[in-house]
Amino acid sequence: MDWRATILLYGELLLALWLLRREGLMKDRTQQALVLVLVPLAFVLRYCFLTYETLDYQDWIRVWIQALRDAGPWKGLGREIWSCNYNVPYLYFLSLISVSPVRDLLLVKLLSIFFDVVLAWGAMKLAGVLTGSDMKKLAAFLLVLWLPSVLLNGALWGQCDSIYGAFAVLAVWLVLSDRPGLSVAAAALSVSFKLQGIFLLPVYFLFLIKGKIKIRHIFVFPLTYILSILPAVFAGRGFWELLTLYLRNTGSIGDGLNYNSSSIYSLLDLSRLSPAAGERVGIVLAFFFCAGLYLWLALRLRELNDRALFGACVLFAVGVPFLLPHMHDRYFFVADILTLVLAVCWPGLTPAALCVSFGSLLGYHAYLKTRYLLPMRYGGWAMLAALAMALVFTAWKLDRPVPDDDEPLPAG
């Protein structure tokens, strides 16, 4: 293990501790004991995973970094890298990694672990704005660091879902904290890192009609997205090429209706569906799911408080990838985090978080172990159960337009 990587990991541990101290979550002995035991142990686990290589790293990420290294970090950003379907913001980090003397694998994982900390911080802030409870804020931070899908995603698998996930969670916190411009910017950054950031975007229509954001804030999205691709444009990539990258990549997703995902397709006999027909079914169902939520919540607009809006966020984060075709094993990442926050704030909804985590981990197991632990339909039923619980929660909060918990919502 490279000593420089160990120092960087230690720095990320110190960052996590500093964020908790800055938030005032290490004031008493109980909090201090929880933090000083659970946070370092979470990083020890990550340390144990750092040298493990998956096929995704060997076949793709390592190849992209080498292509950037061969071309030069700046010139490499100006060229389209063969087989790379990631947007350029992630390639900026890979470009920096390509000129570092530290082993590529370690830096790729350390980048994701850094955003694990940002993700935990975002979940902590979100729990705070929903409940105002210091203990629930601390629980959200610690549980995100220990959530199996977060642990495995970055430190073991070397994936970067914590980056787009962190920005997605921050976007929800910012809008519920009445910072709409920053929220839209965070949502744009989430999408700019990975297309899966769009799963949460439909909720912004509800934010708009409720007055949480204004029309003028919508223009922050394209502006932020364009700014995120400009460095690559200056390096030589075509502006229109990058602006339409995701549209062009949709043609390369393959014919498979389900890729180890606990989606609705895990519940269906795919041998009876043609890929084209199955794709249309999922897209139509996702459309009517979103339209039905819009109609229901628009008709209850006066009762649509912040907690019901958070329930809508959970519904979109779970429901959209559940219904869409071509979903992969890691596409419920944001749903994992939002249902965890839901369970922390309202412990009676812990089964919803367990169901989503179970469904996600079935897909993780299928990839990492190259075999199924259980049939994926078990995960599909778990996701469906989580959707039902999130729906009940949202309806419950609509009937309570004022805070109904022991601790009041903070003013800002």
Task: Describe the protein's architecture and organization.
70% of the residues lie in helices and 1% in strands. It is globular. The N and C termini lie far apart (45 Å). The chain has helices at residues 3-22, 29-49, 55-71, 73-77, 88-98, 104-131, 134-146, 148-156, 161-176, 180-193, 203-210, 215-218, 220-235, 239-243, 245-249, 275-299, 306-323, 333-345, 350-368, 376-398, and strands at residues 258-259, 327-328. The model is unreliable at 406-412 (pLDDT under 50). Helix 6 (104-131) packs parallel to helix 18 (333-345). It is an all-alpha fold. The chain has one domain (3-81, 89-398).
Unreliable residue runs: 406-412
What fraction, in percent, of the residue positions are helical?
over 70%
Sheet of most strands: 2 strands, parallel
Main β-sheet, spatial strand arrangement: 1-2
Question: Based on helices, strands and strand pairing, what is the structural class?
Answer: mainly alpha
Please count the beta strands (DSSP E, at least 2 residues each). 2
- Compressed to H and E, one letter per element, the order equals HHHHHHHHHHHHHHHEHHEHHH
Q: What is the rounded distance between the termini?
A: 45 Å
| Global mean pLDDT | 93
Strand content: under 5%
Computed over alpha carbons, the radius of gyration is: 21 Å
Number of helices: 20
Overall 3D shape: globular
User: Please, how many domains?
Assistant: 1
